[in-house]
């Protein structure tokens, strides 16, 4: 669902987060420590057994339960964004080999685990984290510095226009190359759908990325996005003026829609199928080597057939345990 955050073209990023060139929440060390200790409590004790949000074959999706699991997710993000893709690490990121920022302390982290990974010599067999997604609820964003995507896009107008809605920002999604399959995407959506129901989310937002920093080279897919998912007036979002580039890079009537669709990352295609709106402009992120678009997904807009599809028995059980 990044929606969204740093999303490699091969598979997510998505609604994206914590780049050194952008501001991050100014969180005192004591608050950070408290958040780390209580990250997943949310007013309730952490279950002695992790709650499964979805399962497909040997793959499971659930929330991170420990700091160690979050560090592993950060290492996975580093491997995808910095080693595989074209992101440029600062000295601290390069030294730690983890993609991490202050937002990690106020987010929940979805993990995809493979319980039957390929065996490695001299290593104990254990579940392997092969995918992750970062989730930031509005109540946490309001307390600790705002949404990450507000660094790239002016999202305040849609927040002000819908004060009765609960927003969730999705970002920093990535999956190991060998696991970028339909079933992994299905599992990510199951996990997000369970989380949305548990926390009674009304709107998902975030950034989705196309690989590359030259909008002219991405003219077809960007222009195609300008033709689909046009938002109503009260859902319009623009990138900040100093980093804004037009979404329509060419004449919308002159592009080959089928060819443009083939150039979109799988996650962006999934957002389109489910019925998202797109922001009216994009922005170039030179640190991550991507061009980012903004995605808005009101839950009420989601086609009922997808709601039924992702309401698996695991999702229903997880929601029941939280009610």
Write up this protein.
Helices cover 32% and strands 21% of the residues. The chain has helices spanning 29-37, 67-84, 91-96, 138-143, 156-161, 182-198, 219-227, 257-262, 266-274, 304-310, 313-322, and strands spanning 54-56, 59-63, 108-114, 128-137, 153-154, 167-175, 203-211, 238-239, 244-246, 277-285, 290-298. A hairpin with a 2-residue loop joins strand 1 and strand 2 (59-63). The two termini are 23 Å apart.
SSE class: alpha+beta
Molecular shape = globular
Largest sheet: 9 strands, mixed
Overall residue-averaged pLDDT value: 85
> Could you give the count of β-strands?
11
Sheet-strand content, in percent, reads: 15-25%
| Model regions low in confidence, pLDDT < 50 over at least 5 residues | 7-25, 38-47
Q: Reading side by side through the largest sheet, how are the strands ordered?
A: 1-2-3-4-6-7-11-10-9
Distance between the first and last residues' Cα: 23 Å
**SSE string, helix = H, strand = E?**
HEEHHEEHEHEHEHEEHHEEHH
Number of helices: 11
Rg, Å, rounded: 19 Å
**Percent of residues in helical segments?**
25-40%
Task: Describe the protein's topology.
Layout: H1 29-37, E1 54-56, E2 59-63, H2 67-84, H3 91-96, E3 108-114, E4 128-137, H4 138-143, E5 153-154, H5 156-161, E6 167-175, H6 182-198, E7 203-211, H7 219-227, E8 238-239, E9 244-246, H8 257-262, H9 266-274, E10 277-285, E11 290-298, H10 304-310, H11 313-322
Helix pairs in contact: 6-11
């Amino acid at each position: 669902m990044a929606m969204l955050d740093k999303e490699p073209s091969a598979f997510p990023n998505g609604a994206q987060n914590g780049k050194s060139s952008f501001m991050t929440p100014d969180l005192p060390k004591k608050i950070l420590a408290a958040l780390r200790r209580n990250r997943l409590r949310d007013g309730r004790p952490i279950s002695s057994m992790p709650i499964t949000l979805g399962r497909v074959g040997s793959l499971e999706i659930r929330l991170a339960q420990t700091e160690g699991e979050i560090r592993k997710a950060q290492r996975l993000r580093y491997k995808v964004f910095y080693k595989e893709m074209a992101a440029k690490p600062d000295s601290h990121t390069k030294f730690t080999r983890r993609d991490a920022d202050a937002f990690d302390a106020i987010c929940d982290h979805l993990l995809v685990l493979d319980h039957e990974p390929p065996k490695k010599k001299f290593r104990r067999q254990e579940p392997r984290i092969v995918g992750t997604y970062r989730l930031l609820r509005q109540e946490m964003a309001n307390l600790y510095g705002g949404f990450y995507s507000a660094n790239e896009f002016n999202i305040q107008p849609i927040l002000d226009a819908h004060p009765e809605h609960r927003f969730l920002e999705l970002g920093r999604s990535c999956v190991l190359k060998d696991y970028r399959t339909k079933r992994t995407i299905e599992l990510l959506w199951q996990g997000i759908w369970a989380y949305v129901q548990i926390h009674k989310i009304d709107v998902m937002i975030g950034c989705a990325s196309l690989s590359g920093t030259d909008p002219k080279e991405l003219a077809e897919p960007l222009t195609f996005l300008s033709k689909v998912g046009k938002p109503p007036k009260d859902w319009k979002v623009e990138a900040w003026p100093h980093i804004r580039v037009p979404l329509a890079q060419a004449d919308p009537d002159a592009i080959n829609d089928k060819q443009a669709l083939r150039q979109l990352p799988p996650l962006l295609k999934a957002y389109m199928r489910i019925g998202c709106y797109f922001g009216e402009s994009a922005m170039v992120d030179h640190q991550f080597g991507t061009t980012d678009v903004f995605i808005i997904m009101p839950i009420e807009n989601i086609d009922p057939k997808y709601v039924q599809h992702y309401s698996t028995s695991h999702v229903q059980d997880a929601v029941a345990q939280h009610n």
